[in-house]
Amino acid sequence: MSDFKTINCSTVDGLTTLTLNQPPFNVLNIEMMTEINAALDLVLADTTVRLLLITGNGEKAFSAGVDVADHTADKVDRMIEVFHGIFRRLELVAVPVIAALNGVALGGGCELALGCDMIVAASNAKLGQPEIRLGVFPPIAAILLPRMLPPAKAYELLLGGANIDAIEAHRLGLVNKVIAKEDFANGSVEFVNQFLGLSRSALMYTKKAIRTAAGKPFNEALAAAESIYLQELMPTADASEGLNSFMEKRLPVWQHK
Question: For residue 165, how far is the Cα from the chain centroid?
Fold first, then answer.
């Protein structure tokens, strides 16, 4: 899509892959986070994107977190601005977002993974929020972890700062799939491909319905989902194509609109 110094970002057949490219630890400094924001702006403007995959370069780390040097008094305001800008943009991405953890995801790296819709992890991956041990706390994880885990477990991870391995993260429901380290590239592609063969509009409106309904009382949530289904999804070409292809016993030809 564009040339960056600290990340790679490209789109092929509807899949945008954003790779953190400062191995071995892919530390999130202000420069990298600024580039991630710019890449996400490109994704938001590209109507051909059907899925966003965020991963890291190397075998050790997805990301070991935000650069501690960027937490100093002269930089912390800018650091928070660009780091939290990533999540404000992720919240606007209409298509599925998957984090592929090729290694450890700690601190801000763990938060980046939590900000995605789904996570696949290599068997050697570890996740954790160690900020409490530095006398600070992770604002994004403080919001997201209690929504994703039983509250007591979220408190334990945030207040204790311990890491969990990929198997434990899968058991807790943070990770969708754990893939053997030696087969991570193929396994993550296989996971992604199940979504790439689907209609972009169906993916978008399903994700919108999930997010719109979240936290609402049932009848209010149902009314919102009904509105998205009837007013937004059903008028699309792909809704007609999907239903017609099923009745005609043929494979659908998606227009992604």
Answer: 19
